[in-house]
Amino acid sequence: MPKDVVETQFFKTWLEEDGIVYSEVVKGSDITLEVAIEQLEIIRKLSKSNKKVPLFVDSLHIGSMSRDARLYFTGEESFKTVSAVAILVGGPISKVIGNFFIGLNKGGYPNKLFDAKEDAVEWLKGFLNEQYSVSGKY
Q1: Of 26, 59, 82, 123, which is the most buried if we count CB atoms within 10 A?
Q2: Which of 53, 77, 56 is nearest to 130 (CA)?
Q3: How confident is the model at residue 120 (pLDDT cuts 50, 70, 90)?
């Protein structure tokens, strides 16, 4: 794991040499709007540039996510930071939250649910160095 890992009560997040930001939800975390705002700022700082980054999210152990957090993660601030999102899902809770997330993201950036990390990372590699307009349309 890289040296620049940011750990909070809710996420462990880092930028790999492959250019993808990886974020693991801490087991049982309940993601609120405040947590979402903090997490997006961490992703922005880890990217160390003004370029958008592909994001891998391991949501296997998520507890819940508020509606406000989902809306924030799929809103304009995210469109300025993220080029694509791959969400690793497994159990029923992570699948429901993942489907809500994808249902809310109307044209902001490509996103997809995966049940295998390797498939998700391979998909995200296609979005390295992708630049989308700040309006969130691609």
Answers
A1: 82
A2: 53
A3: very high
